[in-house]
Amino acid sequence: MTMTQMNVRIDDKLKDDVDTVLREQGVSPSDVIRSLWRYIADRRQVPRLETTTEEQARKQRRMRRLTMIDASSGLIQEELLRAGVIDEDTNLLAGQTRQGIRADVYDQKLDDYLNMTRSV
Q1: Which Pfam families does this UniProt record tie to the protein (predicted)?
Q2: Burial class (CB in 10 A: 0-12, 13-18, 19+), 113
Q3: Which of 29, 35, 78, 90 makes an SS bond possible with 86, Cβ 3.0 to 4.6 Å?
Q4: Residue 93: pLDDT band by 50, 70, 90 thresholds?
Q5: Three-state SS at 91
Q6: Is the predicted pLDDT of residue 106 greater than 80, yes or no?
Q7: Three-class SS of residue 106?
Q8: CA distances for 39 relative to 22, 25, 48, angstroms
Q9: How far apart are CA 86 and CA 110, in angstroms?
């Protein structure tokens, strides 16, 4: 196999930062570039690369959602407490993960659908 040399212009600080990370992980810059080129050749597409701005926006959206979930659980908890269904020490989100909540909602939607089709 014939090899080609590539030259790339990159910010000095960025290169130094990445070189440090790669060295810590025992990977060479050439290994990373070859892997990227192989990925593009195999999939016929460039991988989705997230900019710092996009990453920060995604994190902010996630935090807003978590804040809304927390606020909603507070409102629900108040109503359940008022109705006498739970006591003040009950934490509705204790031990829950986003995946767990999503799975519970999915299961409930599936049950609703199955019950709806059975009753028709």
Answers
A1: RelB (PF04221)
A2: exposed
A3: 90
A4: low
A5: coil
A6: no
A7: helix
A8: 19, 20, 12
A9: 26
How does the average pLDDT of the chain come out, rounded?
83
- Residue of 74 and 84 predicted with greater confidence: 84
Helix 12-25 to helix 29-43 angle, to the nearest 10 degrees?
90
Residue with tokens 């960025």, as numbered in its chain: 14
* Start-to-end CA span in the chain (Å): 66
List the helix and strand counts (H, then E) for the chain: 4, 0
Residues present in the chain in total: 120
